[in-house]
Amino acid sequence: MASSNHVTPTNCSWWPISAMDEDDKTTDGEESEEPTAELKPFNKDRLVLYHWTQSFTSQKVRLVINEKGLVCEERDVSLPLQEHKEPWFMRLNLGEEVPVFLHGETIISDYNQIIDYLEKTFVGETVAQLVPDADSPLHERVQHYRQLLDELPMDAYTHGCILHPELTTDSMIPKYATAEIRNSGELAMVLDQVEAELEKGQLEYQGQTCELWLCGPDFTLADVWLGALLHRLKFLGLSKKYWEDGSRPNLQSFFVRVQKRYAFRKVLGDIHTTLLSAVLPNAFRMVKKKPPSFFGASFLMGSLGGMGYFAYWYLKKKYM
Fold this sequence. Notes:
alpha+beta, Glutaredoxin, Glutathione S-transferase Yfyf (Class Pi), Chain A, domain 2, 2 domains, 7% strand, disordered N terminus, disordered C terminus
């Protein structure tokens, strides 16, 4: 059995195939305690990732998988619907956290260990290397920015911005989130360091015809981390404060370029519809699991229609 922060080989013949397909089944009028999994032949080379689309750590793992060009089955585990607390998922990770990665008989439930495993296991001429070799002069630089960006309290920033008193009325923002988001000096200092590194690269490779990233001409894990961070800050409405005001032009240029990469477009999609794409699937999955009454269904469909209508006019007004 896998536990959080461990790499565990185990017999995975009981794998649940899909979080979305594992709705409660009834037998003799009673609900079964555990979803019935679709049976598939065991494949030692099969890759499966259990994640939640809006999980910041899940997004980083998915970006790495797609940047490396790996074929991986993705199973969405909805945290708002408490699917990470269901028995079938707790068999994968007692820590009740996403992401969880499966490769053959190996289960990994810590996202940094997943990244290291992917880099160590999947190598070759046709597979992108995101962490330079240990004897490379860029190795230490990439690992430095990986750690620097990883230490930012993104959960606190996310919660703090969503519930920030300056953006809402009568906010009930948690104290820890308030403290983190208001003490945003750490974030500013990290972004200043990144801006300086990008500027240093411009001077270091001046006159050379190559596309530059954070640690040089090669796209690395540091760029995945930075791209995911900027996407989240943009979603939270902090981009104008930290780079779109012209204070960090190299960061602005980086963000424009990283959004054009195939992996980023596939995993993160259109930033303006991120929230809507997170709400609607959960609503339909909730209905699928527990169908409401006629009046409840009417209310739900009316609410979804209303949300879609206002979202359309909001986006039209702001971006069209």
